[in-house]
Input
Amino acid sequence: MIWYVYPMWHRVSFSLIAERHVEQLRKYFRIYTIDERVLNILSPATNPLLIIHPYFYPMSRYAKHIERLLARVRGIIGIDVADSDRISNLAVSMTHYAECMIVPSKWSRDAYVRSGVKTPVHVLPHGLDTSWYTDPPRVQFFKNLLDLKRKHGLKYLLYFCWHSEYRKGLDLVLETYKILRRERKDIVLMAKFMTPDGYPHMVIRSLGGIIISGWLSEEQKRELYDISDIYLLFSRGGAFEHNGLEALARNNIVLAAERGAWTEYLPQFTLLPCRPTRWVLKDNPIHCGGGVEVIVERAVDKICEIADNLDDYKARVKEYVNAYVKDRFNWVRIGRQLAEIIKRYL
Output
C-alpha cells in the first residue's frame, strides 16, 4: 500500500506534478492521497510506503511527528527539487530519514550529491500528455491577441512568472524588453502573472507589452504558447522549469541560459551565454547555493536574429522535439519509470 502526501487544497506547482504522478501510479499500485497539512496526525496501522512531495517543507514543519511515524511505515520516499546548485546542511540532514530522494533532473541530483546527500537520489523528469506534442494549434480564448499579431505583423515573446521573481529572472526580462523596444517595434512581450497590477506590470505596459493574469486552464495556457513565437526562460535557478518544456512542445523557441537543469531538454541552438550568480533564493533555509543568469545584451541579439529567421528556427525546433523530446518527456513513460523506482522500496 502507498500513501502519497502532497498539497491537495493549497494548489501550487508541486500539486500539479503530484497529481500527474498519482494518475500514472494508479496503473500499477493501490494509492491513497493525503493532504500534507494532516501529516502531523497520521497514525497508520497498515505499514504503508509513504511518498512525501514536496519533502523538505513538511519534514521541517512536522519533524517530531514524522520521527515517530517512521516506526509505523514501511519507509519514506521524498520527492523534491534543487532550485540552486547546493542545498543546506539542514536539508541534507532531512534526507537521512528517506529511503531515497527523487528529483526532476541530473542537475538537481548533482546539487544533492555535491551538498553531501548519501541517500540514493533518483532522477525522474517532468513530462506532458502526448496531446501537447500532437494536437494542432486551436485559438479560442485569446483570439483578440492572435488577430492583433496578424494585423500588425508582430512576433510575440512569452514569459511566465507565478512567483519567485528574482529566481525567475523577471528583472532580466524587463531589461531585455526595454532594449528590444528601442530597436524593434514588431516584437511584443506577453507576460503572465498571478496578479493584474504591480511595478513590473506597469513597466511592461508602458513599453507596449501585454499583461495576462490569474489562473489559466490547461487549454488557455496551451493557447498562449500557440500564439507565441519565443519563450523567455530566464530563470537563475530551478530543478526543471516545466514551462520551458511546455513551450518547446508547442513549437516555441525557448531561450535560456546555457547552464542549468533546462539544458537537459532544450536544444543547444537556443541556449544563451550566461554568468554565475551568488544566490538564487536569498536566505532560503533549503536552497542556499548559486545559479546563473543570461547576459542581456546577448539575449537581445539572439531574439532579433530569431525574429528575422522565424520559420527556420521553428522548423529546427519541431525537428528537435520529434527526434529527442516527445518520446522521453511524456507522462506515460515517466509513470513507468516512477513505478520501477517505487518497486525497489516496497
Remarks:
- The two ends are 8 Å apart (CA to CA).
- DSSP finds 14 helices and 14 strands in the chain.
